[in-house]
């Protein structure tokens, strides 16, 4: 029995270990390649550990390409998304959770319905509308249409529904206006939910690829993801060294956020996903 | 303003070899990657829950790691990893360890979808794991207790207790995977380019909608394509909501 247990233990560790190795290999290779000069990257036999380790790829990336500018652009866009969406989604969620008004259920169903419309379907009509407004080649299409984020509104409504009505009534009796009630009572209570939502919005915006690809033309407006895809393949030349260095720098902000707030992010994903 | 052409765009779609190609490729991708990510996620979740496993937290973090990486980064990492001849897999594993000829993962048409599958497993298995671990938590522990007392082997327990109770979660995950696969864009775009690589072997529906609309600027035709696919995805999402509401 003990012997059998040991065997199962070994088998489980081998399977999970092999899986973990498969998960780590691409990341390991990406990281070491970023520290190799281009000729070493393209040499056979490959070097498992860089022989001529260098920071030159990072220097070249930051000085000879638009990458540094793109990092800044993506940060601005992501932060704008976070601030606007968190604010408006929590306000809308507050209204749907705590106010009775005619058509509430119908409106909420409509909002939820938009979650199920694939990005595909809205892409072309949105593009035409943005063109008419004159917003092509600006950041506006990456920020403005997403403000009424249906997932965010749904998520906030669920969260705010747990706030006791007595607290809100007490605030009103004490003379707080409707916005004051939201700002001073609701917001402090739902802070954990706001953080999860903010993280979710930041990562979605930071990692978005299709929208910037469709809307942005000028290189100085490019987001990180777009610049990465762009510097990797220039005509028929592959800039593996810059691509790998940029991949590391572009992952760093998400990695740090994810590591510090991992628990909340995962529970947020599960809850949001399962209730989708 | 163009003239009104009724359903002509939709009619043309069904005779468009590119469209048929993209749909078939996407279905092939789904058939290949779906069972691997869903089944793999379930098995992995059971193993990660096992009393016998050490370092659970570390392993879990490792499997979640790729979710923190953007789609573009993951596609770039794979082009580096699977490159011929100087990718790690081709040179170190295939040539030096197994003494075989390098494999053309990225440009051989027959391997386009399998290569994409590898990338998808890597990038998305963390998602499946989250869903499956949540599902396993919903199974009452006394059921396992009872089956252990009745002398069931771990495998029998998995087949007769875990699997039936996990069906709603497996279904939910299956629909999510289907929707994600039809929406896939960044990965094939980086790996194979807008044309989908040699013979369009890596052309997926997401890639084709983009190409038709934003490379050839045939908005009407692109929109027709998007709506047809959108209806399919929308129907699947409705189904997903149904399944999600059941528990």
Describe this structure in words.
The complex is a heterodimer of chains A (276) and B (247). Chain A is mostly helical and 276 residues long. Chain A folds into two domains: 2-54, no CATH class; 57-275, MetI-like (MetI-like fold), CATH 1.10.3720.10. Helix content of chain A is 76%, strand content 1%. In chain A, strands 1-2 form a two-stranded antiparallel ribbon. In chain A, strand 1 (233-234) and strand 2 (237-238) form a beta hairpin. In chain A, helix 3 packs across helix 14 (240-260), helix 4 (67-98) crosses helix 8 and helix 13 (224-232) packs antiparallel against helix 14. Chain A is globular and about 75 Å long. Chain A starts with a helix and ends with a helix. Mean pLDDT of chain A is 89; it is low at 272-276. By secondary structure, chain B is mostly helical. Chain B has a single domain (8-246), classed as Orthogonal Bundle (MetI-like fold), CATH 1.10.3720. Chain B has eleven helices and no strands. Chain B has helices at residues 8-14, 17-49, 56-64, 71-81, 88-97, 112-137, 141-149, 154-183, 186-192, 205-214, 219-246. The longest helix of chain B is centred in the first third of the chain and has 33 residues, at 17-49. Chain B starts with 7 loop residues before the first helix and ends with a helix. Chains A and B meet through helix 1, helix 6, helix 11, helix 12 and helix 13 of A and helix 2, helix 3, helix 4, helix 5 and helix 6 of B.
Condensed summary:
The complex is a heterodimer of chains A (276) and B (247). Chain A is mostly helical. Chain A has helices at 2-34, 38-41, 56-64, 67-98, 104-115, 119-133, 140-143, 150-161, 165-173, 178-189, 191-207, 210-215, 224-232, 240-260, 262-275; strands at 233-234, 237-238.
Give me the secondary-structure topology.
The complex is a heterodimer of chains A (276) and B (247).
Chain A: H1 2-34, H2 38-41, H3 56-64, H4 67-98, H5 104-115, H6 119-133, H7 140-143, H8 150-161, H9 165-173, H10 178-189, H11 191-207, H12 210-215, H13 224-232, E1 233-234, E2 237-238, H14 240-260, H15 262-275
Antiparallel strand pairs in A: 1-2
Chain B: H1 8-14, H2 17-49, H3 56-64, H4 71-81, H5 88-97, H6 112-137, H7 141-149, H8 154-183, H9 186-192, H10 205-214, H11 219-246
